[in-house]
Amino acid sequence: MAQIASIFRKFVPQFLHMIVLPVFFFTFMLLLRPKGIVEFLSSEWFGVHLTIMSCIIFLSVVITRVLYYYIPMKLNYTLYSFWCLAEIIFMSFFNALYLWLVMDKKMLYFEFVTSSFQYLFFSLIFAYVILALSLRIYEYRHKEFSHDDNTAQRMRFYDNQHNLKIVLTAPVVLYIAAEENYVNIFYVENGRVREYSLRSSMKALDELCQDNGLIRCHRSFYINPVHVKVLRKDKDGIMYAELDANDVRHIPVSKKYYDRLSEML
């Protein structure tokens, strides 16, 4: 299943969720007033309860989106949908706690949780869908308009904190090697081989490499097949790739990845 688009992990989308979700909930409930919501919140204090619930949603989303931004996770769209559902459940517990403490109703706490979840789910599901579609459309249009047949596609490398560290065109990248908590990016600049150490993991670069034509040839290496001059086997039977750049090491090639690499040469 396809991994979730990289735009979903950037800071601005998280900030949009923090703002849009509570505002959407407040507006939706205030204008449409779904059946039973006014009676549930008490008509006399409807606006007050609605405002406080929106503030609770804001604080809840701040917590969950900060976690989503900083915790390294690789999600597909199905798992991301479950994350959003868990986010609504998280909001429901805190909203229910507030209502249970301030409202004079003979209801158990988990009855408040159930009611809160129903109102939150059926209002916020529209906001989540709108945000998700907007992000996908933005990414699609951004890629479409930034694409130029006369220039190579750019690779943007981010560190573990999602800070942009280096931008390279795909054809200049020779290979990427993992080393403990870093990855070393080897590329050509002005005819010379350069190296850049990035605090990241190979797993975090999977989608970026695959989208730009680099393929995994070893557990610790990604290689650009454009620069592979020849595949050789040494006297010990170990396969490696020779690149077309000077003063560059031979890159080991695992049996697991050999067939795919050889097909692309």
Please give a structural write-up.
This protein is α+β, with helices and mostly antiparallel strands. The chain has two domains: 141 residues, no CATH class; 110 residues, LytTr DNA-binding domain (OB fold (Dihydrolipoamide Acetyltransferase, E2P)). Helices cover 49% and strands 20% of the residues. The protein has a five-stranded antiparallel β-sheet with strand order 5-4-3-7-6. About 2% of the residues have low confidence.
Topology:
Layout (H helix, E strand, L loop, with lengths): L10 H22 L4 H5 L4 H25 L6 H26 L6 H38 L7 E5 L5 E6 L3 E7 L2 E8 L2 E7 L7 H6 L3 E4 L2 E3 L4 E6 L5 E5 L7 E2 L2 H9 L2
Antiparallel strand pairs: 1-2, 3-4, 3-7, 4-5, 6-7, 8-9, 9-10
Helix pairs in contact: 1-3, 1-5, 3-4, 4-5
Strands side by side in the biggest sheet: 5-4-3-7-6
Distance, first to last CA:
27 Å
Radius of gyration: 25 Å
Please tell me the overall pLDDT: 88
* Bulk shape: elongated
